[in-house]
Amino acid sequence: MRIASIGHAVFSIAMIGLGIVGLLYRDLVPVWNPVPASVTAHELFVSLAALISLATGIGLLVSRTATIAARLLFATLLFWLLLFRLPNFLHTALFAACWSVFPLLVILAAAWVLYVWYAADWDRRHLRFISGNNGLHIARVLYGLPLIFFGAAHFIDVKDTLSLIPEWLPGHLFWAYFTGSAFVAAGIAVLIRFWARLAACLAALQIGLFLLLVWIPIVAAGSKVAFQWSETILNAALLAAAWVIADSYRDTPWLAGNDLQ
């Protein structure tokens, strides 16, 4: 085994889980699905991506294959983003397009961090820009931008945000705005590299609380709504990815400013 961090292990297990679910229930894996219906053999693409997710998740846990797995997962996610997600900005409403792009950016950012960690000599010679510190900084930017969007979405779509807050929790509007503001603040901190480690860890904690307090109770209550199961799976994947990003700051002081990162 070649485990770089707890986040690495959690992310690898999440990829294995996504792969298994994707092969069994294609409609429940929003990381890979949907592929535009206009794409030839779009269902085959989803199955192939799920298989890659399963294989790379296992590969990331094995010393001999970690580098290859990191390369393959990073390349596949980047391909998915460029070919199947970014074009949504041209064909769908902006808010919907953002929801299709930014969650995938979080997963891609985590895969990029793992690629940097496991880059071999060949990568550092031929792909130095994306496999070294520059690549790590870009990955963090790709994480910071979605955090800002996630936070802004709490204000843009207050009604749906309020509907997800547990009934037993008082002050629903306060929590909608507070968590939205927290995401925005964390995203900005990551982008400007100011207290970025603290921000990344708190953002991961907040994503974990959403999973624990919102989505798990919904599916545990016996929900048969595919969307709710899909969102639960996505939230778990986002938590695993956020954990990897937080781990990438492990050598950075908690309250470091820009000059120390």
UniProtKB/TrEMBL annotation:
Keywords: Membrane, Transmembrane, Transmembrane helix. The keyword Hydrolase does not apply. The chain crosses the membrane at residues 7-25, 45-62, 69-87, 93-117, 138-156, 168-192, 199-220, 226-246. It comes from the Bacteria. This is Putative membrane protein. It comes from Silvibacterium bohemicum.
